[in-house]
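#dry-run=false #mode=assembly
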Amino acid sequence: DQQVKQNSPSLSVQEGRISILNCDYTNSMFDYFLWYKKYPAEGPTFLISISSIKDKNEDGRFTVFLNKSAKHLSLHIVPSQPGDSAVYFCAAKAMDSNYQLIWGAGTKLIIKP
Amino acid sequence: EAQVTQNPRYLITVTGKKLTVTCSQNMNHEYMSWYRQDPGLGLRQIYYSMNVEVTDKGDVPEGYKVSRKEKRNFPLILESPSPNQTSLYFCASSFALSNQPQHFGDGTRLSIL
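#status=ok
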């Protein structure tokens, strides 16, 4: 049973618009969440993270929102740019684990010109 | 340049022929980890290491071995590869502090015939 779910395998967004990527989790022991971005033939690179004591974290065009009651987080990219086309992974860490991450299956974001 | 280097990047081999995938990092990271990525499943942890001579199983360790004799290197060994180990493999490293983002290599695509 997947503890971290990204239910949209792909998402297509017009350049300049907002991209919203979603992630749901089932384990209430998760206390830290991360988003990674992956280009073809490269490894994932860290994008942004959020602790469970916050409900929002912002870094430039990227904002992550956390809704603990719904066990849901989302990544907003505004405005979307062609270089944002990539696969985005959501990952979560449990309170009793310092390093082990549980990963979602990823969402492929396509930015259309 | 700070990086995690994996070799080889691609390998096609046959069932039962022992192989080793090397991983090296130049960031003096204590923590290193191996993942496999399969379609629809995200990244799953195979083994991890908290420091030299300290290794532990992840979620899918069967059929794999690792060693951590030096801080910078963390090779993944498949003693008797089987077709179900055909996958995309990633090595990652980070400092051994809670919530440090992991840095990934560019991946190794293994095909076991």
